[in-house]
Structure formats: structure tokens, C-alpha cells
């Protein structure tokens, strides 16, 4: 049965979709069978795997707002299977609000395919609405991407409160795997100070070396592949491979972590 990870942070543009896609690709590299679920109406993950979200059907919208089984929506990509999204899901979110047990619909759908996968990675939208709550309800663990810049982590407390509510109401077993520092510029004292502050303030575990900034990350989606295929010489690629190894339960050799660029990143 698959372990389910929700990549969540209601702050926009902190590299949730990049993290979901890249860690999925890195888990596939390790030989795991991986499904990514695009739970964001913006469909960036779907686009990043080379699909045009405007022309796709069925998508998660048809699964959650209609009666298409999730299995029927799944596409095969060399780096990960994908349950795609489309802008229709924005309307679907409203339709979902009318449905009884709405928070559990995604969990139920994933249960139907979980035997076919080792890991399922859900990319959440930048809000704490019904789609994110559905993902948190379906997940075993949350992975929180945080951009280590001033004010960027101000919403993390609110996310942790939502996670506490989900534990109380819909998913008592939800765990927090930890956080990933994204778009990191460790050359500045500022970046390092914010990283330390996030660790201390929220008591979250840093899961991998900070993922350094590189324009290559913004280029990869246009080729429909992850950074691991597009250009895995960028240090962030190594950081995501460590994240995947960590989620797969491996003990990380400190030398590997070091080589991936923690020091003076
Ligand atoms: N390490 C990085 N270095 C430079 N750019 C990055 C890095 N990681 C992600 N990006 C870029 O930052 C932008 C935002 O990333 P992404 O779409 O993954 O964030 P998100 O949190 O999913 O956004 P949203 O909240 O809109 O869903 C994208 O253009 C992406 O290519
Ligand atoms: Mg996104």
C-alpha cells in the first residue's frame, strides 16, 4: 500500500509543485512506483509533466465533482504517473462544498489505487480550502516547502493549526514529515538566519539540504520533465534526491548531505 505525502503550504509560489514533481521523480529513480496527484486548479504540476491542462480529460475535477474513478484519469509519464488537474477544478471546489463527506472523497479515490503504488505525492493549491484539507485528510505525512525569506514563513503557524484541526476531525494519524527550504540563497546571512528561525520557531525538521535557487528550475517545466532529467548538475537536484531518500526511509550519510551543498550554499 502506498504511503501518501501531501506537499502543502497556503503561501503561493514557495515551490510546492516543483517539490512534489521533483521528489516524485527522485522516488521513481529509486525504483518506487509513484503517483503524483495534482490537486491545484492552476495545474502547474500537470503542465510541468508536459500536458496541456486545457485539453485534458478526465481530470481530478471529473473525479471529485463527477463520477469518474481516479484510476481512469491517470496518465503515464516516465518520471511518475499523474492524476492531472485542470482549471475546471476551481469550479469543482465550489461543487465539492455541497457534497457530504467532501473531505474524504480524495482519500476514498486514492484507496482504490493505493495497491498499485509505493508512494503517492499530492500537490496542494496555495490555500487552506477544501482541496488542501482533502489532501491532508488523505495523507500519511505532510511535507512543507518554505521559502527562507523574511515574512515568507508567516503563514506556517496557520498551516500548522489547520493540520491540528485535520488531526482532530478527519485524520488523526496525519504526521508532519518536516520542511524543505526552497529557493535558498545561503550566501546571504539573511537566508541562513531565516532558516535557523524557521527550525526553532516551529520545531520542524529540515528534511534535506536547502534547495538552492537556479533558473533551471523555471525552465524544466517547459520541457515537461523534472530538474533531474533537465539538468541534474544544479545543486537543488541533489537536495531533492536526498529528500526522496529520506522519505523512502533511508539514513542519510552526512557526507552526502554536505556534498549537496549545505555549507555556504
Ligand atoms: N530552487 C528554485 N530556484 C529557482 N526557481 C525555482 C526553484 N524552485 C521553484 N522555482 C520556480 O518558482 C516558481 C514557483 O514554483 P512552484 O510553482 O513550484 O511554487 P508553488 O508553491 O507550487 O506555487 P503555487 O502556490 O502557485 O502553487 C516557478 O516558476 C518555479 O519554476
Ligand atoms: Mg503549485
TrEMBL record:
Ranges where the AAA domain occurs: 3-175
Signal peptide extent: none
Pfam families: AAA_31
Function: May play a role in septum formation.
Family listed: Belongs to the ParA family.
The protein's name: ParA family protein
Protein source organism: Egibacter rhizosphaerae
